[in-house]
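My current task is to audit a protein record that another person submitted. Please read both lines and tell me whether the tokens look consistent with the sequence. Do not assume that whoever made the record got everything right. I have pasted the whole thing underneath without changing anything:

===
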Amino acid sequence: MGYNYRFAIRAFFLLLSLTTFLNPSAATTRRLTALVKQQPLVLKYHKGPLLGGNVTVNLVWYGKFSPKQRSILVDFLQSLSSVHSRSPQPTVASWWRTIAGYTGKPCTVAVGNQVLLESYTLGKTLTIDKLPVLAARGSKRGGNTAAVNVVLTDADVSVEGFCMSRCGKHGASRRGSAYAWVGNPGKQCAGQCAWPFHQPIYGPQTPPLVSPNGDVGVDGMVINLATVLAGTVTNPFNNGYFQGTAGAGLEAVSACTGIFGKGAYPGYPGEVVLDQTTGASYNAVGVRGRKYLLPAMWDPKTSTCKTLV
């Protein structure tokens, strides 16, 4: 139950490969007009409940994440609802505000419980049915049942379908609570689940962007966490906003896979900001000046993929 990356990833890399085959110079000329006729992108609302208002995110760290890696991801979540009124650049919070167009009211995010499972209690190879089991560890007995429990697996953990058909997943447990999972692709499939910080598996082999926090796997996790969290809020029980088949359709961010800035096309993430000191690419600033590269989000007000820059 819940969205996974199967169709979004395959469609992205299929178009990437098709582009290269039909027009080998497309990576440098940026001429992708009419190679594939685009269907109207409309995420239909299926009348189900959404997770608007105040959302608590509980984190289950499965494996050996370093303190720095944990801080990158926690700072991202805390940045979703932080106020940056004086920031001269787009912020993580301004990216998240598009969610209000779905829920009809502001949606704030707070980090709740954090559980460290560094001993791989269920092993280093997990089946999909183990994810809600791990997610349940994020809720304290008698805690907030409306919270989203997010499982984060480290680079040494293999999850069923990871890299092959998904970079993350969200769904609902038998008790009706929402959960999500994102894996660290640094060792297993950076070219698929950490693009554009690594050369893609298929298509034009253009130089990758420099990751803003110096960790390709974790900066890739930020992109995928942003994707599944937006999907969890706007389509928590497979009857919210999506296009296509319930449980495998395109959602708020997965509908815009591969788009990070204006002028994006398969193999080119679009125009983003370059840090003149580090050479890293980003498009949003978070708490403590932390920089992130966030994917475009489908805007229900304009029916387009909205980018920050």
